[in-house]
Design brief:
Length: about 180
C-alpha cells in the first residue's frame, strides 16, 4: 500500500514539474479511484490568469465534466468522490480543502505543508471539521476526510525552491497590462 502511495505521489510530482516548466507555481495532483488514476491536474493560475485554478480544482473540473457527460446523478457523483483519494504535492489551501470536503472526498495525501494558506492543519483544519455545522439547508454540508502529509516532502519542496530560484518570473506582476492591446 505504501509503495502504491509513493507511485501515485510520483505522478503528482510529475504534474508539478509540468507546472514548473510552464513557469507556474509547481503544484500537481492526481485523483485515484479503485486503484486507478482518474484525473490529474497542475497549477495553472498564471496561464489562466485566474487565482483559483489550483491543481486540485483543475482535476475536480475534469471529473465533474466527465461524470456529468456520463449522465451521473448528484448522488452518484457524491458516491464517486467518496471513493477517491487525492495525492497532491502541497497541502491543499483553504479554498481547495473546503471544496474537497464539500465534495466528500475519501482521503488526501500531500507532500509539503502550506504554511500560508493550508486548509488541512496549517491554518485551518477543514478535513476534520465535521462539527462546524452549516445551518442553512441551502449550503452544502462539509464532510471530513482523512489527511496525511509528509509524502515525498523534499521533492515537493525542491520544486518550489527551483521555482523561486528562477527569480519567480510570475510574482512581480504589478498593475500593468500584461498583453499589448490589439488595436493601436
Ligand atoms: Zn488550492
Amino acid at each position: 500500500m505504501e509503495s502504491d502511495s509513493l507511485a501515485y505521489m510520483e505522478l503528482a510530482i510529475h504534474q508539478a514539474k509540468l507546472a514548473l516548466e510552464s513557469l507556474e507555481v509547481p503544484v500537481g495532483c492526481v485523483f485515484i479511484k479503485d486503484g486507478k488514476v482518474i484525473a490529474s491536474g497542475r497549477n495553472r493560475t498564471t496561464e489562466t490568469r485566474n487565482a483559483t485554478r489550483h491543481a486540485e480544482m483543475e482535476a475536480i473540473d475534469i471529473l465533474m465534466e466527465k461524470w456529468q457527460r456520463d449522465g451521473l446523478s448528484k448522488s452518484e457523483v457524491a458516491e464517486n468522490f467518496s471513493k477517491c483519494i487525492l495525492y497532491v504535492t502541497c497541502e491543499p489551501c483553504i479554498m481547495c480543502a473546503a471544496a474537497l470536503s464539500i465534495l466528500g472526498i475519501k482521503e488526501v495525501y500531500y507532500g509539503c505543508a502550506n504554511e500560508k494558506f493550508g486548509g488541512c492543519g496549517s491554518i485551518l483544519s477543514l478535513h476534520s471539521s465535521y462539527s462546524e455545522t452549516l445551518i442553512s439547508g441551502e449550503v452544502p454540508q462539509r464532510k471530513g476526510f482523512k489527511c496525511t502529509g509528509g509524502l515525498m516532502t523534499s521533492e515537493a519542496v525542491s520544486l518550489f525552491r527551483t521555482f523561486y530560484e528562477q527569480g519567480n518570473p510570475n510574482a512581480p506582476k504589478p498593475h500593468r497590462p500584461l498583453v499589448q492591446k490589439e488595436v493601436e
